[in-house]
Design a protein that fits this description.
Radius of gyration: 19 Å
Helix content: 55-70%
Distance between the termini: 68 Å
Shape: globular
Largest sheet: none
Strand content: under 5%
Structural class: mainly alpha
Length: 122
């Protein structure tokens, strides 16, 4: 019940800011908040990020969290903090950052030795 009350309060406070915020809150509620207790503080944090960043960017971070099957808002907030540190200011910047992050991860990790690397019969 509290979750619905929190959603209603945020929606009422954001009716003038457009549908972007509603979309973010609904996405959180339907995808990341499942199985996690509701807290007004979390909704305030989401509101903070929307106000300081952009609803489209917050939604993109939430979608990355959902793909990783992370629940709650902590993982999303970690993504957003990394993006702030990297100077991300748009969706395109976020995409470039994520692409670069994935490439660095692949190049930076050493190849795990296989059984063939330890073949002592040679």
């Amino acid at each position: 019940m509290d979750t619905n009350k929190n959603l209603k309060n945020l929606k009422n406070s954001s009716s003038s800011s457009g549908g972007g915020q509603d979309e973010v809150i609904n996405f959180y509620h339907e995808n990341l908040q499942v199985g996690v207790s509701s807290s007004p503080y979390i909704y305030q944090q989401i509101q903070h990020w929307i106000n300081d960043f952009d609803s489209e960017i917050v939604l993109a971070a939430m979608k990355l969290s959902a793909k990783k099957e992370k629940r709650g808002f902590d993982y999303t907030e970690g993504i957003l903090k990394k993006w702030v540190e990297a100077g991300v200011q748009s969706i395109d910047d976020a995409r470039k950052f994520e692409q670069s992050f994935k490439q660095k991860g692949r190049m930076g990790s050493a190849k795990r030795p296989s059984k063939e690397d330890f073949d002592l019969n040679d």
